[in-house]
Design a protein that fits this description.
alpha+beta, 15% helix, 35% strand, globular, three-stranded antiparallel β-sheet, five-stranded antiparallel β-sheet, 2 helices, Jelly Rolls
């Protein structure tokens, strides 16, 4: 049995804060080849997950916020916001599911935020994500400005 408690979330958040990318995954699936990928994903506010989609192979992805606040954004093919939600367990907004072939990104709105993520497998880093050309890549100097403008556009 895998147990998820406050101590585990705090430890994972501490590791995220200390990492260069300001996030840390803890996989529960034993192998990348598993058809169901399950993990915790601790994220800090200044991390950047470039908008992406999962297709060829198509994959559904679900996020449940266990701690903190997370913004999940869906985009159309031109990079315009199609839908969004703020996941906040204290406000009763726990999770969302992203269908295959849908551009999306997750943004931490609060330090110590942790999501439980479920995604179809298997995981192959070469084809898992198709990144949006209309958004800056991870590590680009414009990435944090892109997130700031996105949050401002959504009134957050």
């Amino acid at each position: 049995m895998i147990k998820i408690d406050s101590a585990l979330l705090q430890d994972l958040s501490k590791q995220a804060k200390a990492s260069a990318r300001l996030r840390k995954n803890l996989n529960f699936h034993p192998r990348d080849e598993d058809t169901l990928q399950r993990m915790l994903n601790a994220m800090e506010p200044d991390t950047y997950i470039q908008p992406h989609k999962h297709e060829n192979p198509d994959k559904t992805e679900a996020f449940f916020c266990l701690k903190g606040k997370l913004l999940v954004v869906e985009f159309d093919d031109k990079g315009q916001v199609a839908d969004y939600c703020v996941l906040d367990p204290l406000s009763g907004r726990f999770g969302c599911e992203i269908p295959p072939r849908t551009w999306h990104s997750i943004i931490s709105l609060e330090s110590g935020s942790v999501a439980y993520e479920v995604k179809d497998g298997p995981y192959n880093p070469l084809i898992d994500k198709h990144f949006a050309e209309w958004s800056p890549p991870e590590g680009d100097p414009d990435a944090l400005n892109y997130v700031r403008l996105l949050k401002q556009k959504l009134g957050l």
